Amino acid sequence: MLKKGKLKLPDGLGILVPGFDHKEEENGGSEPIFESGEELEIMEPNGVELGRKENEYEFDDLGVNDRVGDKVDAFRTRKRPDKDRSGQVSVMDVIAADERRSDLEYEFSQKEINLEKVKRIASMGVPDGVGLRATAWKLLLCYLSPSRNAWEKELTENRQKYAKLKEELLLSPSAYTRVRADAMISAELSREGDVAGPLKRQGISHGDHPLSVGKASAWDHYFKHTEIAEQIDRDLQRTHPDMKFFSGKSSFSKKNREAMRNILLLFAKLNPAICYVQGMNEVLAPIFYVFSTDTDEQNALNAEADSFSCFVRLLSDSVDHFCQQLDNSPVGILSTLSRLAKLLKENDEELWKHLEFTTQVKPQFYAFRWITLLLSQEFNFQSILRIWDSLLSNPFGVQDMLLRICCAMLLCMKSRLLSGDFAANLRLLQHYPDINIEHLLRVAQDLNADTSSYSLSM
């Protein structure tokens, strides 16, 4: 867990991020029984076809040591299937989704929302449409309070504070100076009764000059982030390239990428010790997509501001994984990978021994990306949204559910892993096949939520 104060946010952020300052069912509908080592059949994913990613990241080297500065430089482009294959949805699935939709609509209409009930419903998957997922995620990330009457005030204040942060940190010094000067002139004219007078020349101090190299110069700080901005732009260009929402030359996709660029660059400036790490764009993508496609027009127009705060909240539980200096600490990525290995050992020692000693496929060879990017590179986009419903609604936290899903991914491929060698197993885990996501999540949820005593229901 992130210690309080790890993400350094200015006082102006206020309540934007509170807490920093303080197999389908068979046999008559019975539940399928999972046996340890049972491999899930490869199935066509259900749901709306949102597009298959052509380019994704994988590791250049089989480890976590290839980094540049404080940033992970361990991703490269890899090929995935050209497109998703649409599967069939059973009548029972449709009925269940309708029931969850009705339950959530009812909960969201109450003056005081029962968060525990929202978590239970969301853990089974938030139905698409009518903005339910956007509202549910904002509640699950504590961006919205359970009191519905407070939402309008909270959203207005948070969005205004985000706009102020953008003005102060993303505008060039000269543009910011002009904005401030215009504001002062407008205020002065208002006080003088709008009486026209001679224009006043605005002075520029030495520290405000673009050629100033002083450490205190606003331009020096501005230019230092140029390289980061360029890296963000490159990564955004390959974010879900088959989805028109993110990719292409249309004004629509360009506008979306610009908004995501603002969020990532602002995060980097507010957190210089972590800055921007390649792959953060993939973590942001589901949040921004869900909020931007909210059926509430006002919420959709403010998706950028809402996404920023929720992105920060989501990373607060895993940001230490991006920091090289903390790799060997109790909160670093190596410690988390060790927890995954321990979890696998306690649930299936045979598979653990085969991976750890026989083929020597260590968790850092495949699970580094799984964990740091919250599985956003392993499945099609619709499946990612479903998985995140479970991650965000887990009562024990995102990281707890994330490790259980990662362990379930290994258990569900047991027979193939036991018959494979190093190369085959590494290829399988770095290019995880399409499977029944609901079955995978049931396996993960069957693991004990207590990370100190995981057990698999038989």
What labels would you give this structure?
Cyclin A, domain 1, two-stranded antiparallel sheet, globular, mainly alpha, two-stranded antiparallel ribbon, 19 helices, disordered C terminus, Helicase, Ruva Protein, domain 3, 458 residues, single chain
Overall description:
The chain has 19 helices and 4 strands. The protein is mainly alpha-helical. A hairpin with a 2-residue loop joins strand 2 and strand 3. Helix 12 packs across helix 13 and helix 12 crosses helix 16. The chain starts with 54 loop residues before the first strand and ends in a 12-residue tail after the last helix.
| Relative helix content | 40-55%
| Total strand segments | 4
Question: Please, what is the CATH homologous superfamily of the domain at 55-87 and 322-446?
Answer: Ypt/Rab-GAP domain of gyp1p, domain 3
pLDDT below 50 for ≥5 consecutive residues: which ranges? 1-87, 194-203, 451-458
Which structural class best describes the helix and strand composition? mainly alpha
The top-level CATH class of the domain at 55-87 and 322-446 is Mainly Alpha
Q: Distance between termini?
A: 31 Å
Listing every helix as H and every strand as E from the N terminus to the C terminus, the arrangement reads EEEEHHHHHHHHHHHHHHHHHHH
SS field, number of helical segments: 19
**Share of β-strand residues:** under 5%
Q: What is the overall shape? A: globular
User: Strands of the biggest beta sheet: in what spatial order?
Assistant: 1-4
CATH architecture of the domain at 55-87 and 322-446: Orthogonal Bundle
Radius of gyration: 24 Å
CATH topology-level fold name of the domain at 55-87 and 322-446: Cyclin A, domain 1
Residue-averaged pLDDT: 78
Largest sheet: 2 strands, antiparallel
